[in-house]
Amino acid sequence: MKLKLAVLLSVLFAFTAAPRAAESYTNAYEAIALFTKVLEEVHRSYVDTNESGYDSLIRHAMTGMLQDLDPYSQFMDKESYKDIKEDTAGRFSGIGLVIVMKAGLLTVVSPMEDTPAFRAGILSGDIILEIDGKETREQSLSDAVKKMRGEAKTEVKLKTIRPSTHEVKEHAITREEITVASVKDAKLLDGGIGYVRLTQFNEPTAEDLKVALKKLTDQKMTALVLDLRGNPGGLLTSAGDVAELFLPRGDLIVFTKGRAGELEDQRIKSSGNTHYTDFPMVILVNGGSASAAEIVSGALQDHKRAVLVGEKTFGKGSVQNVLPLADGAAIKLTTAKYYTPSKRIIHGNGIEPDVKVVMNPEDLFKLRLKQAQKDGEADKTLPVQPELRDVQLDYAIGTLKGMMIQQEWMK
After folding, report:
1. pLDDT tens across 234-287, in order?
2. 73 is a catalytic site residue
3. Window from 114-118, 229-233, 319-323 with minimum mean pLDDT
4. Which of 291, 318, 332, 390 is an active site residue?
5. Which of 144, 146, 152, 142 has its CA nearest to residue 128?
6. Which CATH class is domain 91-179?
7. Does the pTM exceed 0.70?
8. Is 269 among the residues known to form the active site?
9. At the fourth CATH level, which superfamily is domain 183-318+335-410?
10. Cα end-to-end distance, the chain, whole Å
11. Is residue 61 within 8 Å of residue 6, measured between CB atoms?
12. What residue ranges of the chain are covered by domains with CATH 3.90.226.10?
């Protein structure tokens, strides 16, 4: 109903404005006068009086206005704004999905690991058709997120389709209180090669990674695999803090371009006092690597600090500013786009790996689930996962061994 009202307001506005399509309004007051006329007409004539109060209509209009701009701009009520603040702290209650509207379809960027959605087998690229029996094409992004959030131990039902196989699945998923550990599986592999996996970029990520790297270097690590597969991103500040650990002080990490002459471009450079620049490095990426993960990958690739192995990343490279409103709500508005140091635009393009190694997403999911079972983090009722090879990790290790041999030869 809310989406229909937002669309109705948009249609009425467009219809009324049609005679003036060839010219722009000279000031905001002309546009507001037209909007007010439409608002009054809907308030007076809309069939459901409980949906046509001024407060409700204004919020519907703001929702429709923002969601029509791009998949990432949105109006957030008090509850949604509270949720997004909890996300950045790495703790919330829900099922653990990062989603966007892509070509009008509710699309999974990536499931967070060790969450109900991950254990249900939902993968990056899956499209959510229904939430609790209601079609998602009639819902805004914020409404969809709100419906999947909820108190722990309550259930939500999803219907999904996997575009690669056209397989439709129904899931009954129980919500949990989720605390996301963003740094996982830090360990030393054969040959002195370190391995660290980042599941997302939140406030503690850089400091936790610094601790993990210190332990690995104390164990005489000679090379590193940084695994960003399935990492949906997170905070821009966290991406900068992670990237600068591997780049010399002063190196450009990312810059943004906003509307010319109105929004100042932002440039993030490597700073701080801890920099690991003296060992070979491979970053693993795939279609579930997005946003902050793409910033880190693009920066280290441009500076030739790391070799990227895997598959093309998601391509989410726009900047959203969250602007709080007086009543506790907020708007999330796209204000700029990210560019790598070599001026590559991330948004809509993604980051191409240096070496393409394709891996079935379901095989990677099974490997992750098997590791979770081994660590005691997964549901013990799930079937034991079969033996599989992580072909992308194998290639990364082989690449690093070759780089280390070359380094020795050049000494």
Report:
1. 888 999 999 999 999 999 999 998 876 555 578 999 998 999 999 999 999 999
2. no
3. 319-323
4. 291
5. 144
6. mainly beta
7. yes
8. no
9. 2-enoyl-CoA Hydratase; Chain A, domain 1 (3.90.226.10)
10. 70
11. yes
12. 183-318+335-410
